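User: I need a structural model of DUF4371 domain-containing protein from Cirrhinus molitorella for a docking pre-check later this week. Nothing fancy, just the predicted structure tokens so I can convert them on my end. Input:
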Amino acid sequence: MDRFVIRGEKRCGENSDGTRENKKKSRSISSEGRRVLEEWKNQFAVSERDGEPFCLLCSKILGVCKTYNVKRHFDTTHVTFDKKYPPGSQERTHKITSLEKNAIAEQNTMRASLNVTQAVTLATFKISWLLAKHGKPFTDGELIKNCFLESQCLFNDLSNKSEIIRRIKSLQLSNDTVTRRISEISENLTEQLKSKIATASALSLAADESTDIGDVAQLCIWVRCVDSVTFEVTEDLLALKSLHERTRGEDIHKALSEACRDMNIPASSVVSITTDGAPSMTGKHKGLVAEMQKISPDLLAFHCIVH
Ligand SMILES: [Zn+2]
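Assistant: Understood. Predicted structure tokens for DUF4371 domain-containing protein:
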């Protein structure tokens, strides 16, 4: 989950970073072999940041790593700097050293605060995940936060207690945030399952239909597949489909086909189906298995051992 959160932060949080990354790509081709030169610091107040020229006067990353471009930026943007701090003077050296010190300190603060933001986001993902796993209402997020705050006596002997409390307070656990986090986790899990299914050359399905407390028939479909390269076995819930009208074999077949379509599973890669043996599943002419065998005659059908 940590990797997922950090990837997500980069994806949805930092537009500017994203643009920079793109720039970096195109630059790495055009400026192959070029590096930030040490003498640029005194000449143009430019130092290196993450391998790129960084203007200490306007805190900008300069596009191209070439003396001509760095000089042009300096000459056009910072016209008065040479007059104020003449080249070779001690004032100039002092000024540039102090600018560089400030830039490094600023960068360190930014990095630290980004790490804290990521940690806080990760914590909200973990709490949302726990709520979903235990079937708790999403509104319990705020309750958990209050539990943390009410237990602050645990940190009384710690010198950084106020910082701990500040971070707990910054946790976003409203109903809406928890809902969003759970939906992001769910989307990510679906994508992971889809990519595992895509690499498997064959897979097995298991289907079971049951009625929930609201008297609605629910079709639960499981998938089992083996990665054709690593031989890693995956067994996961493929879909849960509500059958609002009837629960005949053809209705179940329709719901199952929909689930397969949503997960990009071609009928040809399904080699077996396991059911509970009910007539709607195994009926000779209109049962689910019969419907599936009309499309794939070699499909194997099993009776679930638990049933
Ligand atoms: Zn500048």
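Before docking, keep this in mind: The longest strand covers residues 233-243.
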